[in-house]
Amino acid sequence: MEIIDQFDVPAPPDVVWAMFQDVPNIVACMPGVELTDESSDDVFTGKMTVRLGPMKPAFEGEARIERDPSTLSGVIVAKGKDKKGGSRADAKVSFSIHASSAGSRVELVSSVNMMGQLGQFGRTNLLKDISAHLTAQFAECLAAKLTAPTQVVADAVQADELRPLEALVAMVGLRIRRVMRRLGEWLIRHSGDS
Whole-prediction pTM value? Predict the structure, then answer.
């Protein structure tokens, strides 16, 4: 499943790019993600815990980062396995940073493949909704780090723990807004028919 997200942050692209090079600092903005080891400058091991209703899989695995400073872009290839539930996940995330009126726009294109018990979520829009919620939390944390008055304050900024009820409310809100938008578009198209 391919997921496309984007968000704006209040800093110029070169500053955002520099922040993206500090992997432990970026991981601090990812809800549910914990860095456990850095094998090299480009290979990291870690753990990602995601709460999906009554299930709380903890994927342990590895991520490899390829960077292109000339285009302020990169690719993260990750794979992990939930030892308790036996589910596996592979992901490829391409990111690019561009100038915007807010400062910078970060564009993300993710390809996610889930296998095992959690594979059912990869066939629904639920995964897209969860991704949108996580991206919003990441963007908020990143903006707080970039606008912190001192480096000590910036280093202390961490992503909030992913709260299942908050995520569920956000996902329901997204679905309601989609339905209302479609209804509005339908009403506009058919307003002259009567």
Answer: 0.74
